[in-house]
Every structure is written in C-alpha cells, then in structure tokens.
Design brief:
CATH architecture: 3-Layer(aba) Sandwich
Largest sheet: 6 strands, mixed
CATH class: Alpha Beta
CATH superfamily: P-loop containing nucleotide triphosphate hydrolases
Distance between the termini: 58 Å
Number of domains: 1
Strand content: 15-25%
Radius of gyration: 19 Å
Order of helices and strands: HEEEHEEHEHHHHEHEHEEHH
Number of helices: 11
Shape: globular
C-alpha cells in the first residue's frame, strides 16, 4: 500500500481503531445456529421522548436467508438496525445473535467482531484510497500498523480480496481511487468492504437509492448471490427492487411486525394495503 496515500488516514483514524481491535480482537464464541436461526428479536420496545419507535417487536431470521424489510417512514426500521448493531439500547426486550450471544450485553465493536456488518444508505468509503486499499483496510482480524502500511498480506488474504473483487464486479476498478467511482460502484465497494470482514449477518440499508436501473439489477444479483453463504437483511423502499429479490418480506408499521410472508402475500394483505402499499384511488 502507498504510505503517502494513507498517511492522513492513519494519523486521524488508526489509533482509536487499533485500541478497539485490541479490546475486541476475538469474540468470546461463535453464534450458536445449530437450530438454523441466526437472529432473535423478542418483545423489543424503544421510545424517544415519548415516541414509541419500536413497539413489542418480534423478528426471527434464519441462517442464510435473504430477508427484505419494508415499511413507511417512521416504521422503526432504522431503530431496529441500531439495536441489532449496538448503537441503540432498547427499553425492554431481548436480542440474540444465535442462541447464546446476547447483543444487549455487547458494544458496537464486539458485535461487529462477532460477525454482524452494516451498510448504511450513504456509502462510506475512503475516497482518496484505491479500491484495493479500501479492501485491505477492511480486512478481518487484528492488523499490525506497519503491515497495514506496507500492504503485505498472505496468500489467503490476497485470494479473498480477489474473490470479493470478482463477486462485486470491481476487479477492473481495483486501482482506481474511491472518489472516481459512480454512486453504484461505491455501494458495491462498501459491500465488498463488509465482506472482507467475514460477516455472518449483513444489514443493508436502502442499497439502490440513487442507482440507475442497470445498477439496481446488478445489486440485486449481488445480494442474491450472498444469500446462503451469508444471512442478508435488506431494508428498502423501492418495491420493484424488493419484488425482484425477495423470498420473504417483513412489513413494519409503528414499530412492530404488521405482516410477513412472500411478496404476493404481503401485497394482498388488507392491512399492508391500507398503511403502505395502497392508494387512495
């Protein structure tokens, strides 16, 4: 890796990052998914200044599935993801990663280290670094500061980076800085950075906002290809996109599950039509 290109990054970000890695270099245990379930949210409640963002939320996600979460603005989707990733603590309820890892007893770095990754709506890549360098910095596992600077990675890490580049369609762009990538390419790079961390569960927030139709199709193919190897939760407003990838859909409304099933099932649910998918015609 070019030292000059990451000097400013290192000075600003690495000390805090390294301290967190040292504290959470290994998780106590892997999530117990022996019964096929990877995420349990039960009886969750969360209020902000009297507004109940999450209201007795129960959600169960199977290992390897691609689940789409939809709902109107204010339905609790972002708060739900904040709780899963440790950014927000609920007022009551339980949240487990597998059968034994209590997410409410873990902080954000520990949850990420355990295998939960989140991609926000707006891509956050290091724009002055190349695609390759972004992936190197995202590499899973503890890193020594000088090995990060020198870019010396073993063959397994190099193979993984090449595989992720191919999977996300970024191989031909690997030497380009993040700032010259299109919006869609930045979204794929951020997903690639998450994959370098070897997550078991990916939370993907509105991945196709601002994308062209062609980029949306490619994003759908990418997310679909991840299911099975990873568990993927996609929060999205674009119903055409959801319809193109969804096997199972959960509809949130006023902080709780309003309906759940296939896209056809939730679309035909009168409650969903009334609060979200319907029209006034």
């Amino acid at each position: 890796m070019n030292r000059d290109s990451i000097g400013s990054f290192a000075g600003k970000f690495l000390p805090a990052s390294l301290s967190r890695l040292k504290k959470h270099s290994t998780s106590e245990s892997a999530p117990d998914i022996s019964n096929g379930m990877i995420l349990y949210l039960e009886g969750l409640n969360k209020s902000f200044d009297g507004f109940k963002a999450i209201n007795d939320l129960n959600l169960y996600i199977q290992e390897g599935e691609l689940r789409c979460i939809i709902g109107p603005n204010g339905a609790g989707k972002s708060t739900m993801m904040d709780i899963i990733t440790g950014k927000t603590r609920p007022d009551s309820g339980t949240a487990y990663f597998g059968r034994s890892m209590n997410l409410l007893e873990m902080d954000e770095p520990a949850i990420a280290q355990a295998g939960i990754g989140r991609k926000f709506q707006k891509p956050t890549v290091f724009e002055n670094l190349s695609v390759d360098e972004n992936l190197e910095l995202a590499m899973a596992g503890p890193k020594r500061i000088w090995s990060t600077f020198s870019g010396r990675f073993n063959s397994e890490q190099t193979d993984m980076r090449n595989e992720v580049l191919k999977l996300t369609g970024l191989t031909e762009l690997r030497s380009r800085p993040g700032k010259v990538l299109s919006h869609g390419q930045k979204q794929w790079l951020e997903i690639a950075m998450l994959l370098m961390q070897k997550p078991k569960l990916l939370l993907v927030d509105e991945p196709v906002t601002g994308m062209t139709r062609q980029e949306m199709e490619k994003t759908g193919e990418l997310l679909d290809s991840l299911a099975g190897t990873h568990t993927v939760i996609v929060v999205e407003h674009d119903m055409d996109f959801v319809r193109s990838i969804a096997k199972k859909v959960t509809v949130l409304h006023q902080g709780h599950v309003l309906s759940e099933g296939t896209m056809d099932q939730v679309q035909s649910d009168p409650k969903v039509v009334e609060v979200y998918l319907g029209t006034n015609e």
